[in-house]
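Hi V.,

Quick status before I head out on leave. The structure for the redesign project is tokenized and pasted below; the design run finished overnight.
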């Protein structure tokens, strides 16, 4: 029991040491080895670092179409990735510590850290909820791991065995010497020959029973080691506690606690504008309204936007309005950030008020957030200000999280203003994003506008972009629209030119899409398709991790070539 207690103490000590010191022995893994996962939009993606006694993972919501590797190993039961993200800005740090298994873990909400006006996330209006003052970008947890896993039992047993082995190794020479003395029938104290009286030395009176006391060697030393280990653990916690203490400035701490006299005194002594802005943001986050009002008058205009954003993001609309009365925004840049923050925080009335009462320099910068959270009436007023120069010049990936009615309002305004080729390309990309986000309702809205453009009076305006549009639609899983485009191109007599262009420039995805949608590309240009397949096959051979879809597509084209060659040979 003493060795098990010592094993438990050493397991906790190792986990706390790894969390506090951040042992970087081992290799960083980014991204984790495993399968390719490109369909994680709106779901967790991770970056991992591993050492011999710890695993560090940073979790965020995938908002871009990128190739990321997702671990094929089962996620632990305590990890956030076992559930869907609740908000698109969710970000967590997870650390698991221990040897030989992860025995203790800690999780920290990175989206709820100390507000900083210079933070790029705040510059674009992310709703950072400030509930505690911690490090803005912690490279280690701000608290010791206290949650246990089932592996804690295994680590405890392993450490207990190691401590037992170490004790036996230390006691080994003494035991060997005692064994040799007993073998010679000599007294272990004075060395007198005890062959005649093996239980008691006739010279010094030493008794064997006293030498074999069960308490001192079996329990006494492990108990001492347990006491020393616990003392070392307490000493580490006392010495290393500064590593887990927030690095707040005095004015920030006073603002968080509501000590308005201390705040005024620090400001009077000449606190920097940056520190004042940090303190005001912390006061807004912790509902210290009097402190916030006292600091607003001292905020430099450079940091005013971030402070008002902090008030809006934390639901203090009246404080934000008070600060807005003291801040001018002639160029309209700050207003865009404030409206975006109000939309993300669910303050749609404030967003509408700002949009109507203040000058907005670039209304197209509001489209991404408005699609997701703006009421339809505000969306209509917003898109009414968009002109032809702003059409489709923003990221279409934001459409995948839009409200259906808002997307309909936007497309009804933009599609007639844009050129057909640009509109079709952007709509095809939007279909791909909607598919990755599993938004069938948005796919139907976008597809309806695509059908109107495809069935328009003249397809020559967008036929040059037809190969790229076909590729995007193929990856979006919309062969019905590809068939519609093929029929339209064939009707206007430009389908042959599209096929020749795709073969000459080796557009594999276009060729595959056309073949699967009923166009006999092989019969149209067998030599060109054969040369294209040879080049394609050489590229796949040099690729260490080729896409399975490309391998299957190449096999399908080769099979069609074989059928064509067999038919041609039979005809001859």
């Amino acid at each position: 029991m003493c060795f098990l207690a010592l094993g438990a103490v050493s397991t906790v000590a190792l986990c706390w040491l790894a969390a506090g010191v951040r042992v970087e022995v081992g290799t960083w893994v980014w991204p984790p080895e495993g399968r390719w996962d490109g369909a994680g939009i709106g779901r967790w993606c991770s970056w991992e670092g591993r050492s011999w006694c710890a695993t560090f993972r940073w979790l965020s919501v995938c908002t871009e179409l990128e190739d990321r590797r997702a671990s094929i190993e089962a996620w632990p039961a305590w990890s956030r990735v076992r559930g869907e993200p609740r908000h698109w800005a969710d970000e967590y740090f997870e650390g698991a510590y221990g040897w030989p298994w992860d025995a203790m873990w800690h999780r920290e909400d990175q989206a709820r850290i100390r507000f900083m006006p210079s933070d790029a996330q705040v510059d674009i209006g992310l709703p950072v909820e400030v509930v505690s003052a911690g490090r803005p970008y912690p490279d280690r947890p701000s608290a010791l791991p206290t949650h246990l896993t089932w592996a804690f039992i295994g680590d405890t047993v392993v450490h207990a065995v190691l401590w037992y082995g170490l004790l036996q190794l230390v006691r080994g020479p003494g035991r060997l010497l005692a064994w040799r003395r007993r073998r010679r029938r000599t007294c272990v104290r004075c060395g007198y020959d005890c062959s005649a009286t093996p239980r008691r030395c006739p010279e010094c009176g030493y008794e064997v029973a006293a030498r074999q006391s069960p308490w001192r060697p079996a329990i006494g030393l492990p108990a001492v080691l347990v006491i020393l280990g616990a003392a070392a653990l307490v000493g580490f916690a006392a010495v290393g506690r500064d590593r887990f203490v927030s690095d707040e400035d005095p004015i920030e701490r006073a603002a968080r606690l509501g000590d308005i006299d201390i705040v005024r005194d620090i400001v009077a002594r000449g606190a920097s504008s940056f520190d004042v802005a940090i303190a005001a943001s912390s006061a807004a986050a912790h509902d210290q309204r009097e402190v916030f009002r006292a600091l607003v008058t001292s905020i430099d205009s450079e940091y005013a936007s971030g402070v008002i954003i902090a008030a809006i993001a934390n639901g203090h609309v009246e404080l934000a309005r008070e600060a807005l009365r003291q801040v001018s925004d002639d160029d309209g840049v700050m207003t865009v950030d404030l409206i975006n923050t109000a939309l993300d925080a669910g303050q749609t009335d404030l967003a509408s008020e700002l949009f109507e009462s203040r000058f907005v320099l670039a209304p197209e910068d509001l489209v991404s957030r408005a699609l997701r959270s703006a009421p339809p009436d505000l969306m209509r007023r917003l898109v009414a200000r968009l002109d032809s120069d702003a059409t489709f010049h923003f990221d279409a990936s934001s459409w995948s999280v839009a409200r259906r009615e808002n997307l309909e309002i936007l497309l009804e305004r933009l599609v007639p203003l844009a050129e057909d080729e640009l509109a079709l390309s952007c709509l095809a990309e939007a279909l791909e994003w909607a598919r990755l986000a599993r938004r069938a309702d948005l796919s139907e809205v976008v597809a309806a506008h695509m059908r109107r453009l495809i069935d328009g009076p003249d397809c020559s305006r967008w036929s040059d972009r037809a190969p790229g549009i076909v590729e995007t639609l193929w990856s979006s899983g919309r062969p019905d629209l590809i068939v519609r485009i093929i029929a339209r191109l064939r009707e206007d007599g430009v389908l042959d030119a599209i096929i020749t262009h795709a073969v000459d420039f080796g557009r594999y995805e276009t060729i595959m899409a056309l073949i699967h949608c009923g166009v006999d590309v092989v019969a149209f240009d067998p030599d060109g398709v054969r040369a294209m397949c040879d080049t394609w096959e050489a590229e796949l051979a040099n690729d260490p991790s080729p896409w399975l879809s490309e391998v299957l597509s190449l096999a399908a084209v080769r099979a069609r070539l074989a059928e064509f060659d067999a038919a041609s040979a039979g005809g001859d």
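Above is the designed sequence. The two ends are 89 Å apart (CA to CA).

G. will cover questions while I'm gone.

Best,
W.
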